[in-house]
Write a structure and sequence with these properties.
407 residues, alpha+beta, disordered N terminus, single chain, 6-stranded mixed β-barrel
Length: 407
């Protein structure tokens, strides 16, 4: 047998054994079941991974839209205006914006109710327009902070809890800038005019208020000082790189407040991926089992082919092709099923009438990452390849004389 027909022969026999063509119903049934297992595992992995990516991205955009990515402060807490600090920060290429900010917790009192609020004193002219909080407001409303003396913008839920209407006065009491008198410590306080509200769909809607930086400095008697320079990064998860590049210890980042939340999300994402990856592993194990059964069933045929001059390497290729066919087709079908399901997941859930079971009726965020999909596909094919090695090796080690002794 000439060498140039060995590989086509191995391909033909391998596909015949896999049930791709031929009349072996048992081989066809086992192959179809194996393909379905790999298909469902890959599809489930793509859908769940895309949803977890979407949830993480949604949390990153919503939650970290108000929490500063990083705040660079002075040596002794409050920061004086310093162009050198601003220059050092702006030289870092992945920094998108930097602006002075005063971040302080305060008490807010309307004519009807009392509540707590996290006050952000900002300069509207220096605040980046692409920030989610700023972009949720129209330009006129945001710039009104500079035009309206002692104006305030509140989260929509907080404004609703305080039962406020635009133009109404609210009293803000700041612990920063408090004075001492014979009656005790008196917080700095001032009446502010409620201008409007923002809605982000996060906890900031019930806890955050925006005021003009100059107004906040006056009320809290800070002079020109502020809490620090707030830094916006292209990706909040680049914070470790920023701290390393900036080279200062006076940096407070979002992980102090929200780090445990994102660690929990990352852990949940890994555990879900591991659980679904086990589905693919079980399907691949099914391919391994079916190949072993096929080798046992085809022992006589293998022996005859070996006596006709077929080399052990070609026998090994035959059974590897059989397993790879099942794994490859299952992976392709799973990808073709999983991607549309991920893209149109909310429509599918709505059609099935179970949309209200997830996120209280809100649409599930979905983010498909091409690199992640490629890793899932390659991992599935790699597992299938690994599963074919042992049965193929055992088939190649069959001795014709031993197999045909009692025939």
């Amino acid at each position: 047998m000439s060498s140039h027909i060995k590989n086509p022969l191995a391909l033909y026999i391998g596909l015949r054994y896999s049930g791709a063509f031929g009349n072996n119903r048992f081989a066809s049934f086992v192959s179809v079941m194996s393909m379905i297992g790999v298909c469902l595992g890959v599809a489930a992995l793509i859908v769940v991974a895309s949803v977890m990516n979407g949830l993480e991205d949604n949390m990153k955009n919503r939650v970290l839209s108000v929490v500063p990515h990083a705040v660079v402060s002075g040596e002794h807490g409050l920061t004086e205006p310093d162009e050198q600090i601003v220059g050092r920060i702006k030289k870092i290429p992945y920094v998108t914006a930097v602006a002075p900010v005063v971040d302080v917790n305060a008490i807010i009192q309307s004519s009807k109710k009392l509540g707590a609020v996290n006050i952000l004193a900002v300069n509207p002219s220096e605040y980046p327009e692409n920030d989610l909080l700023a972009s949720s407001l129209d330009n006129g409303q945001f710039n009104a902070l500079a035009r309206t003396p002692y104006g305030i913008i509140l989260g929509a839920r907080l404004a609703q809890e305080l039962d406020l209407v635009p133009g109404e006065k609210v009293r803000i009491m700041f612990p920063l800038g408090a004075r001492y008198s014979i009656t005790g410590r008196i917080p700095a306080q001032r009446l502010f005019t409620y201008i409007g509200s923002f809605y982000l769909g996060s906890e900031a809607d019930g806890s955050v208020g925006l005021i003009n930086l100059e107004d906040g400095q006056k009320v809290m008697r800070l002079g020109k000082k502020f809490s620090g320079y707030r830094v916006w990064l292209e990706d909040p998860f680049m914070i470790e790189r920023f701290i390393s590049d900036y080279g200062s210890q006076n940096v407070v980042d979002w992980r102090r407040e929200k780090g445990p939340l994102f660690q929990a999300i990352a852990m949940e994402k890994k555990m879900m991926s591991l659980m679904l990856f086990l589905i693919v592993f079980v399907a691949v194990f099914n391919i391994l089992s079916s190949l072993i059964m096929t080798v046992i069933d085809k022992t006589r045929e293998i022996a005859i082919m070996r006596t006709m001059g077929l080399k052990s390497r070609t026998v090994m290729q035959i059974f590897m092709i059989e397993g790879l066919w099942c794994g490859f087709i299952g992976t392709v079908l799973g990808t073709l099923l999983g991607l549309p399901c991920a893209l149109y997941l909310n429509q599918i859930l709505h059609f099935l009438g179970v949309a209200n079971m997830f996120l209280f009726g809100q649409p599930l965020p979905v983010l498909i990452e091409p690199l992640q999909i490629a890793i899932i596909i390659l991992s599935s094919i790699a597992l299938t390849t690994a599963a074919t090695i042992y049965p193929a090796y055992k088939a190649a080690r069959i001795l014709p004389a031993e197999a045909l002794r009692y025939e």
